């Protein structure tokens, strides 16, 4: 079900003016550049050049993380575009993520400070818990035992959240959110006694093959903006992507709707999400595709086209995270 409010709002968005409200009074641009590229195959400097180009093109949101290993480049690009006068800091929205080895409350602020130091910025706009699953704290981001099994850590999501609230109060982040949380995990935070700051967003996989109707409805009812990751159907990298799901951008419906508007399947997929109030963070490190992916404000899909695209839902994830499916907080067991 589309909410008429978010539908109406999305029809008013423009390339210059495309942010939507968050429940804490801040705003988030409805499109951002995803910045995860495989560090083994992405040449150094790529993220920096791409973020600078994206700012010139009109992107104002950047989705990053400590474990993308290029946060220094993203920060450098943002600072360079501030220095050359293209944007001011307050025009840019940067989302950083708390990695799973930093869930114990005393590690939360140092992790965010590490990100700020890497970015060389004074604050991030949004800081989110990347996964509801905690791993053993230490030097290794992906700790494993001698048998190659991941080492988990007991999670108290509410305690982690309280430490995040203190970071917002200290001015290190403007807003707080989560990622890969299911409804139960969101409710855990929302129903926490003494909750000071509500999560403003939940970043989850969302695209025409995985439309997330139930979670979207729950989030709408609770004033939580859904940020859709892998909005183009991912990079189809076999090392972490479920390739049983066919390539989204080859879908005939997307292709034929695209022909009608002289748009690519990627632009149609992105428009579908923003038109239902879902923020999109397509990743591209290719100049043409970065530019094209932003050109989604000069056409709109009809109600029938939106329904047709909702009907493409296969309820299959590209990002299953099955390697952690035995974690007590693995979020994707339930059909939520
Ligand atoms: P995506 O944005 O759906 O797809 C990226 C892939 O599509 C790349 O291979 C890109 O290649 C290609 N591409 C980009 N534009 C295209 C176009 N117009 N036509 C054809 N192919 C195109 O997938 P994603 O990287 O998985 O997700 C986006 C962002 O979401 C990530 O970068 C990250 O910031 C975030 N994310 C978060 C989580 C989480 O757990 N919170 C998980 C996954 C992703 P080129 O670079 O060569 O253009």
Automatic annotation (TrEMBL):
- Any single GO BP term: bile acid biosynthetic process
InterPro entries per UniProt:
AKR, AKR1D1, Aldo/ket_reductase_CS, NAD(P)_OxRdtase_dom_sf, NADP_OxRdtase_dom
Annotated NADP-dependent oxidoreductase domain residues: 31-313
Which Pfam family, any one, appears in the UniProt record?
Answer: Aldo_ket_red
Q: Which residues cross the membrane?
A: none
Binding positions for substrate? 153
Q: Where is this site: Lowers pKa of active site Tyr?
A: 97
Report the GO molecular function annotations. Delta4-3-oxosteroid 5beta-reductase activity
Catalytic residues (positions): 68
* Family of this protein: Belongs to the aldo/keto reductase family.
Kindly provide the name given to this protein in its UniProt entry. NADP-dependent oxidoreductase domain-containing protein
Q: Which organism is it from?
A: Pygocentrus nattereri (Red-bellied piranha)
